[in-house]
Amino acid sequence: MYILEVTRGKKMLLTGSILIFSFMALAVFALFIAPYDPDDVKVEERLLPPGEHHLMGTDGFGRDIFSRVVFGTRYSLFLALVVVSINLLLGLMVGSIAGYFGGLVDELIMRIVDILLAFPNIILALCIVGVLGPSVQNLILALVALGWVSYTRVSRGLVLSIKEQGFIGAAKALGGSDMYIIMRHIIPNAFPPLLVLATLHVSHIILSIAALSFLGLGVQAPTPEWGAMLSEGKQFIFTHPHVMIFPGLAITLSVLSFNLLGEGLRDVLDPRAREVLNV
Amino acid sequence: MRRLLIQRLVSAVFVMLIASFLSFSLLFSAPGNPAETILRQQSGLDPAYDEIELFMKRHDLSRPFLVQCLQWLYLLTHGKLGVSLRTGEPVLEEFTARFGATFQLAVAVMALSVIIGLPIGVFAATKPNSLIDHIIRVVSLAGISIPEFWLGLMLMLCFSLVLGWLPCFGHGTVRHLVLPVVTLAVGITASLIRFVRTSILEVLNLDYIKTAKAKGLREVVIVWKHALKNALIPVVTILGTQLGHLLAGAVIVETVFSWPGVGKFFVDSIYARDYPVIQGFVLIIAATYVLVNLLVDILYVYLDPRVRYEGRS
What we know:
The structure holds two protein chains of two kinds.
Chain A: H1 2-28, H2 30-33, H3 65-101, H4 103-117, H5 121-132, H6 136-162, H7 166-173, H8 178-214, H9 226-233, H10 242-268, H11 271-277
Helix pairs in contact in A: 1-3, 1-10, 3-4, 3-6, 3-8, 3-10, 4-6, 5-6, 6-8, 7-8, 8-9, 8-10, 9-10
Chain B: H1 2-28, H2 34-43, H3 49-58, H4 65-77, H5 91-126, H6 131-143, H7 148-162, H8 174-204, H9 207-214, H10 219-257, H11 262-272, H12 275-303
Helix pairs in contact in B: 1-12, 5-6, 5-8, 5-10, 6-8, 7-8, 7-10, 8-10, 10-11, 10-12
């Protein structure tokens, strides 16, 4: 029974990792993989169906959809990774401070966290981008504004248990300053479980970026980002559906691969780590 | 029980205060002049300087930040959320007029998700690691991976254009309801299946289930009566948090299907930079969210007598 569990978990882990590495490879080698320039407008070749020359057809401006999907991995993956890293680091810093010092600092930080947790993320993201105006910087800002909160909460919990352990007491006895202990001992120990949480969040962030771009409030139109491509292709849905199908498949597959990785990790991890992540 | 209620109410009021302050400061960090944007939209021409001045005076947009904020809070306590810059109607009325359509969507989605998700989740948990469990897991994982707006468009393509079974836009009959509800329900059902499955699997390991087994009770009775009762407790909490997803999903799906609900109105207001509406929406969403989570907390106490709330641990 136990063996079955482990192998099954690893199957998901394996599939997810392979898919993610493929997407990464697409992003890195986009220049060599894409057969055409993703921004090359050819009016005479507009809205061609998928075929020999254009694997996924062409869009309303005659641009090769396959090339645009390949280059799109750069925007979607890169942006999602940037947002998640910022959230992770910010959350870890704030959470460590709250957990380590406790008392009034902890109370204050956790109150703010509790309040921010009461907001549905994407609604506030929509408001921020809507008010500040659509741009990549504002998109990142909007997704960070609430994103760091869950990391803060989880890392605070982790730090609370870490700081009770013997080696922290030893570090203190040796005269280590608070800052030194946090940076040298607390953060490295709290980091690995948070990394798993981050994997689970990447898929979430990819979806949010795509949704905001689809609404025209994220990455803007001529950029070959998947959500922006769908936003542009919307008008052709009934006449030339291939314009809509492939970017959407790309989003689904990339999100699925991160979800598979997260699910696989959850299975492989020991139950205690799982408990932390279910918060 | 009463202590919990008071504690929750106080924190709800606190959340609402912070929410209103946040949404108000957002307005002041906005680039460009809202009066200019609105006037340009109304007439299609660049507005004259005195026109802008007049508009700002009429809508109290030229006063200092704190004055406007306090003024807004004062009106808020009187149930006034201001007037939409676009339509000239009170924001609150604009929302209540559209709330029905969104509520209809939300109830249908929740009902459909529970009817489909609960049995499938329980079934998967009774056969852990079997082929069927594996399939359910992967399919539900795929369900939470599909972007709603794309799924909606694909369903529209399939059922309206190719098969011609259902209308793709509009609102009114049950037939109009099908596509938006299915679009939203896919993700929520999928996550419900996953939660129910894990929840039942955890409960099935407990001693009282072993006792029931040793007593010779049938598997069906054990799972559906004994296990489900306890497994439902975390599921109720999840339904509360799913409401957030539902609201966010509704914003996107309503836009895709031209569903005349709160979400579509919100997105249209964002495009038009209709600040009073954006501010009002943040507050209303926060209020709904806080209220539902309060209800979930109370329900939790009733469902599980072991739970004693003593503040945050």
